[in-house]
Amino acid sequence: MNNPFPMAPTGAPDYRSGSAPLVFTEAAARKVHELIEEEGNPGLKLRVYISGGGCSGFQYGFTFDEEQAEDDLAVAREGVTLLVDPLSLQYLTGAEIDYAESFSGSQFVIRNPNAKTTCGCGSSFSA
């Protein structure tokens, strides 16, 4: 069976040392806080993950999770926590998780320096 996730580039940093390997912006944290309040469950955390699929090979996903795995990266900001599993972190190191509002709408945005190409919708990329 083929692994849909190729190995991370050599020299990938160990996320357990030093500062957070990705940026969770204040705007994104505020929006997550607002959504958690609407759900009425203060124990929720936002999980960002990468899965195989989409028109460019990989796609971003967001979900709320009450559980944090031992090897998850956890980034706290504005009273909320962003979780990333180690496999997804290989592709998100150096990325910025933001929330943007414009005339055309509002959405979570991932600015990922590891994405070699992206599709028009911005939710799929290749590494």
List keywords for this structure.
three-stranded mixed sheet, disordered N terminus, globular, 2 helices, Hypothetical Protein Aq_1857, Chain: A, 17% helix, 127 residues, alpha+beta
Report on the structure:
- With about 130 residues, the protein is of the alpha+beta class.
- It has one domain (about 25-125): Hypothetical Protein Aq_1857, Chain: A (Sandwich), CATH 2.60.300.12.
- Helices cover about 15% and strands about 35% of the residues.
- The protein contains 2 helices and 9 strands, in the order βαββββαββββ.
- It has helices at about 25-40, 85-90; strands spanning about 25, 45-50, 60-65, 75, 80-85, 95-100, 105-110, 115-120, 125.
- It has a 6-stranded mixed beta sheet.
- A hairpin with a 2-residue loop joins strand 6 (about 95-100) and strand 7.
- It is globular.
- The two termini are about 20 Å apart.
Tell me which CATH architecture applies here: Sandwich
Element-level helix/strand string: EHEEEEHEEEE
- The count of domains is 1
Task: Please give the oligomerization state of what you see.
Answer: single chain
Shape: globular
What strand line-up does the widest sheet have?
4-5-2-3-9-8
The CATH topology label is Hypothetical Protein Aq_1857, Chain: A
Strand content: 35-45%
Low-confidence stretches: 1-18
Structural class of the secondary elements?
alpha+beta
Number of helices: 2
What is the distance, rounded to the nearest whole angstrom, between the alpha carbons of the first and last residues? 20 Å
